[in-house]
Amino acid sequence: MVNCCGLVTVKNEPVPLKSIAVEVSVQGHVATVSSTLQYENQEQSPLEAIFVFPLPGEAAVCRFSAKIGQTEVVAEVQEKQKQYDDALSSGQQAFLLEESDESPDVFKLSVGSLPPGEKASVSLDYVTELAVQADDGLRLCLPAVLNPRYQPQGSDSGSGGSAQVSSVPAGSVPYSLSLSAHVSSPHPISRVESNCPLDPLNYLNTEKTQATVSLAAGHQFDRDVELLLYYQDTHQPTAIVEAAQASAKPGSLMGDPVVMLSLYPEFPKDVMSSMTSHGEFLFVVDRSGSMECPMHLGSGSLDRISSARETLLLLLKSLPMGCYFNIIGFGSSYESFFPKSVEYSQKTMDEALQKVKEMRADLGGTEILQPLKHIYSQPCLPDQPRQLFLFTDGEVGNTKEVLDLVKTNAGSHRCFSFGIGEGASTALISGVAKQARGHAQFITGQDRMQPKVMQSLRFALQPAVVDISVKWNVPKEVSVTLLSPPIRVVFQGQRALLYAQLTGEVRTLMAVHRLGARTLIQSLEVEEREQDGEKEGAKEKVIELSVQSGVSSAFTAFIAVHKGDGEALQGQLLRRHVPTPSDVLIFCLFPLSFSSSFSFSIPYSLCLSSVCLSLSKVDQEVWATVLALVWLYGFKMEAQEEWQFLAMKAVSWIQAQKVASVSECVQAGNTLLGCQVQKDTLGL
């Protein structure tokens, strides 16, 4: 296992944090998050405090400071470990914040020697991009719990005396959280929502482009805290130019202005109505033991594997005729439903449906690398673009290795990923989707899995914008250097961010610079791993850029040393654990039951006897299918994302039957159900 949240002692006795305070500053699509953690050494001996801090995968840490008693130190980015070790061994108070070798969304916080009875305050700032949701909202998540990461056999965590997370009942978490947010946007702010109680939104100007909001008083840190931001005119492109850092050398990244371009287009309806019937759909499902965890703590809660199972049933019934598919379950080992992908038909679908119903979380640990290697070793099918759907609670310890593999094979497929539960690694879930030109979704709180998964299926079936080029209209004396990889694909409902450095005379806040630096550092880190340490170029560039921008990397850390009298503190160094709450997740089951590719639990024999029209010669399956369509369009439009592909298949099937009395069937359905659904609305 890799390090998890906490401070530990040799007796493994929990010591709660006193409080956590968070301030958030949002600028359009990015946010700066400032956190302060208060705790105390109540032991009679010095304590080596180690706190592992979960961060969003796309975050860039930009400030770290700590205060012990009356002494405060502010850290700077340096090449890691040596200076920290030298300071600690000489008795100086030292602080180290470094990125985990296994996962970018885990940062290890080594506070060093904390004297007996002393209080400590640790402050950490980071900047992050906000993820776009299916309803156009922007999601900011503060992770309250880091699920125990499984370390695959043979993988060296390098963590030595690693700390294990202590899971406690949600109401027992012995520290509190306060959170306030300041939101500003080029477009008016429509509303701010949360899975936790909020104080009323307070607008700061008449244009409603600035506002503040806070968590309601008395909140306990007992779940992931989400903020959902909604702007008007969300599909308008925006650009934010950030001025250079005054103290930085012109020509360097921090010494030049940086622009962030946000693209979130809305495509014409006639374009988006066209669906492909081709594709190889591979559903890769986590069947590790952790998938048995309940979706929420209440009675009658489904476990995660059951939620995934119900979603797979809906997906299988929604695939287009003519495609190919397979389902791969993974844990410590992996299993495929079929030896290779099979053509989608009534027979293969029925066979897969039965296997899905029998699927359990019985494959041990979470080792995703081997099933991915197996998939990539299989040749792609001609004229069947490969689409990979990954379902997992994100509890893996070798995230970077997985992302490198996905990137290497990115040209052969797209990947749509789904993080299940309140601790799914954002680095893993977002990373695989980003590397393979797909889309990431997170299912937490009261989220239902089906609409999010069906949105991704729509992305996979609908056309995407490719061959994208960006032309920069800037003055002749200004040059543009891209910091981001080129944008290769954009889907309906998916946003793309592009960072670029502006060199020259530009008349124009540091969040954009640091996110741009983070983007470039990530690309260089992958390059260094691909070189396998044979060349020093990429590593040296990462260290130079990291130190210059104040953004930590795999080779650097925030290091701060209080240079006192140099006397070593007396007593044995101890470690303590901070307990974290259990997952809280609520899942609602899709209310319709399906027994074949398109059949609903509607008693059509009763319906036929209730409608006195000339339908006695109409095929009962045609009548039942028309009636089901009328019912869906009449009463279930709010769930259209979930059943739209079923409806499309049903319409195609009805048209293939060449029934002359379809209009009479629609009229009869309206009479029976009390609806006014038009035939054209159904697509008939």
UniProtKB/TrEMBL annotation:
Domain of life: Eukaryota
Cross-referenced InterPro entries: VIT (IPR013694), VWF_A (IPR002035), vWFA_dom_sf (IPR036465)
VIT domain boundaries: 1-128
VWFA domain residues: 280-461
PANTHER family (UniProt xref): VON WILLEBRAND FACTOR A DOMAIN-CONTAINING PROTEIN 5A (PTHR45737)
Protein name: von Willebrand factor A domain-containing protein 5A-like
Source organism of this protein record: Oncorhynchus tshawytscha
